[in-house]
Amino acid sequence: MERSRLMFGLAFTILLTIVTTPSHCKYHSKTVPVDRLKEKVTQLHFYLFDILSGTKPSAVEIARPNVTTDKSATPFGSLYAFDDHLREGPETNSSIVGNAKGLYLSASQDPANFTIVMYADFGFTTGKFKGSSFGVFSRNPVAESPEREVAVVGGRGKFRLARGFARVKTHYFNATNGDAILEYKATIIHH
Ligand SMILES: *[C@@H]1O[C@H](CO)[C@@H](O)[C@H](O)[C@H]1NC(C)=O
Ligand SMILES: *[C@@H]1O[C@H](CO)[C@@H](O)[C@H](O)[C@H]1NC(C)=O
Ligand SMILES: *[C@@H]1O[C@H](CO)[C@@H](O)[C@H](O)[C@H]1NC(C)=O
Ligand SMILES: *[C@@H]1O[C@H](CO)[C@@H](O)[C@H](O)[C@H]1NC(C)=O
């Protein structure tokens, strides 16, 4: 008798669980295979103007460590904020296509191997990708080779769910004032 009551109780509990558990919760959608979303690839080519000189620099130092051992212009731990123009070509009068905003950090303990880590958003203000942007979160071993690679890790607007990479080449660099013009060739996979 006790046993059959126990069995009935158990069966009732299971039934109640089935009835009261919703088929899907409200905080997420149905999960579907990603291959239903069509992926596209876009190549981008532009020049980034990182200007430290003058009365209206596009990159400013916001912090540096109080150490005297590293005599370089950008000692390990220096942090810069930037809002750089992106232009179609390397000439200073070339059309502006967007801007890159963010931070870069001098991240090598060895001054001979100047490396930065970039935390940046590259946005476009004209053409097909106006209002869209992609994110770069990457090391950039500036001193290692004339051409470096940085990782593209996400995006907004037309670059939603972006991933990819950009090849970065120094087109112009003034070691006295730190001004630089960098050529970017990006390959971006997005939806
Ligand atoms: C930098 O460090 C030196 C030596 O430790 C100290 O005397 C000086 O006050 C520090 N300067 C700042 C701005 O913190
Ligand atoms: C930029 O300036 C040069 C020479 O000053 C001129 O030849 C060229 O057409 C200009 N380019 C643009 C896009 O205005
Ligand atoms: C640092 O830079 C020096 C000089 O350019 C080079 O010889 C050395 O291999 C570099 N070290 C590393 C760890 O990349
Ligand atoms: C580099 O910057 C210095 C200081 O601003 C300036 O005098 C010099 O003309 C610049 N060199 C080039 C090649 O632009």
Automatic annotation (TrEMBL):
Subcellular location: Secreted, Extracellular space, Apoplast
Alphabetical list of InterPro entries matching this protein: Allene_oxi_cyc_Dirigent (IPR044859), Dirigent (IPR004265)
Keyword flag Signal: yes
GO biological process: phenylpropanoid biosynthetic process
Pfam families (UniProt xref): Dirigent
Record has RNA-binding as a keyword: no
Secretion signal, residue range per the UniProt entry: 1-25
GO cellular component terms, A-Z: apoplast
Keywords: Apoplast, Secreted, Signal
Family to which this protein belongs: Belongs to the plant dirigent protein family.
PANTHER family the record matches: NUCLEOPORIN-RELATED
Function of the molecule: Dirigent proteins impart stereoselectivity on the phenoxy radical-coupling reaction, yielding optically active lignans from two molecules of coniferyl alcohol in the biosynthesis of lignans, flavonolignans, and alkaloids and thus plays a central role in plant secondary metabolism.
Subunit structure of this chain's protein: Homodimer.
Protein name (record): Dirigent protein
Native species: Rosa chinensis
